Amino acid sequence: MAGQSAKKQVAQNFKILKEIHLITWISYSIFTFFNYFLNRPQSSKFFIITAVPVFGSLYVIEKFGRPVLDPQGKIIRQGQDLQQEGLTEYLFDIIYYTVILNFLTILFNSSKIWWLYWAIPVFAVYKIYGVINAGRQMFGGGAKSGQQVEEYDGEKEQAKSKRQQKREARGDKPKMRYR
């Protein structure tokens, strides 16, 4: 029973990899058919530029997520969990976003759809800025000036409930102790 979770993860990773490859290759096959065989006026430049991040994402997902089994079926390496959050999730988002843009390009017959691809680096910059800003505040680099701190404390006082205010008022009174 000790290897049961590893077996589940191996099966899940195989399933996810099969689905992502199927989605990607069907998308690119349909895109290629519509744009090259039906002679639509699309530039292959955008197609090639946006295919690089997708194939890079597929390579990374394949490299780290593909389980390795020996000929008897024993697990040598189970691969990383492909359902985890973080970088793996962003790699899948890049793939899905590109597939959607492929179909929108086919639907609207315009290369201008590829300009929506700029949302990926803009989102990455936004997330990186959030991480850097959080780190700066954690280490004191984002401390507020004295006036802003006083204003903040005043807002905090007003936010207290009546019960909290009464307890604080009672806490200031001297308490009598009887033996």
UniProtKB/TrEMBL annotation:
Residues 155-179 have a biased composition (Basic and acidic residues). The chain crosses the membrane at residues 20-38, 44-61, 90-108, 114-132. GO terms for biological process: vacuolar protein processing. Pfam families: TMEM208_SND2. Keywords: Endoplasmic reticulum, Membrane, Transmembrane, Transmembrane helix. It comes from the Eukaryota. InterPro entries: SND2/TMEM208 (IPR008506). Residues 142-179 are annotated as: Disordered. It is found in: Endoplasmic reticulum membrane. It is a multi-pass membrane protein. GO terms for cellular component: endoplasmic reticulum membrane; vacuole. Belongs to the TMEM208 family. This is DUF788-domain-containing protein.
